[in-house]
Amino acid sequence: MGKKKFLRRGWFGTTISYIYLTLLAIIAAFPLVWILLSSVKSKAELAGDPTVFFPKHITFENFRIVFEQLNFGRNVGNSVLVALSTTLVAIAISALGAYGIVRFFPKFGRKLTRVLITTYMFPPILLAVPYSIIMGKFGLMNNRVGLVIVYMSFSVPYAIWLLVGFFQTVPIGIEEAARIDGANKLQVFYQVVLPIVAPGIVAVAIYTFINAWNEFLYSLILINSSEKATVAVALKSLEGQEVLDWGVMMAASAVVVIPSVIFFMLIQKKIAGGLAAGAVK
């Protein structure tokens, strides 16, 4: 018993824990670091000895080719527009839907959330043809709006199911106190309830944004113009070249991965802040 406490609370156990977590962090970050370092290597260096970890000479020629010759910046803009639009609309719909389920239809809401989550039983490829037919009838093929609608059909059900659990933790007494102080229903929702469930909102934002940013299948099917293609499709198209330029591929991969990492790094502070605020409240 004494040894267990020593390992659990003593300096030795803490050291082992930090070493273990450090190793996991290195393993998780290694692919990203490899992509970034390979993207600044010259073609000759990649062809000569691609296993060398650090580049001998740093060059940004690969990024110049990606943005100037391949016009990858346009595809990045398309993905940012689609992912942000999907995230904002999904948060608005799911927050209102989850709050309505918890406060106005609690019994029906439990059954509804189970039905919503069953939509994830169907693989995306199974719904590709029906979605294509529907988007074609509404004139939304090769349209970023149609792509946002399709992404929302997958994101909103899961987001509502996730947020229902967060809204259930909000005491009704807090809302009643705000109503007594003169706040209307919208003010109670936006100024009282949403700050408490901020960690859930942030989790939904991360999930929705990253899924929309990385999605490939529906972007490939519904968008047939290179000017409107997302980064996932543009990156895949590089593999179709007769001679694959690994330097350009690594630079394009870095452009695809970095925004997701930056988005998560910026928003993770709000996760911790929201959890702390929720605990205090």
TrEMBL record:
Chief localization: membrane
Q: Where in the cell is it found?
A: Cell membrane
On whether RNA-binding is a keyword of this UniProt record, the answer is: no
Which residue ranges traverse the bilayer? Answer: 12-37, 80-102, 114-133, 145-167, 188-210, 246-267
The UniProt entry's GO biological process terms, in alphabetical order, are:
transmembrane transport
Q: What topology in the membrane does the UniProt record assign? A: Multi-pass membrane protein
Which Pfam family, any one, appears in the UniProt record?
BPD_transp_1
Domain called ABC transmembrane type-1: residue spans? 76-267
What keywords are assigned to this protein? Cell membrane, Membrane, Transmembrane, Transmembrane helix, Transport
Its Gene Ontology cellular component terms are:
plasma membrane
Q: Which CDD domains match?
A: TM_PBP2
InterPro entries, alphabetized? BP-dep_ABC_trans_perm, MetI-like, MetI-like_sf
Q: Which family does it belong to?
A: Belongs to the binding-protein-dependent transport system permease family.
- State the name under which the record lists this protein: Carbohydrate ABC transporter permease
**Source species, please?**
Candidatus Avoscillospira avistercoris
> Which taxonomic lineage does the organism of this UniProt entry have?
Bacteria, Bacillati, Bacillota, Clostridia, Eubacteriales
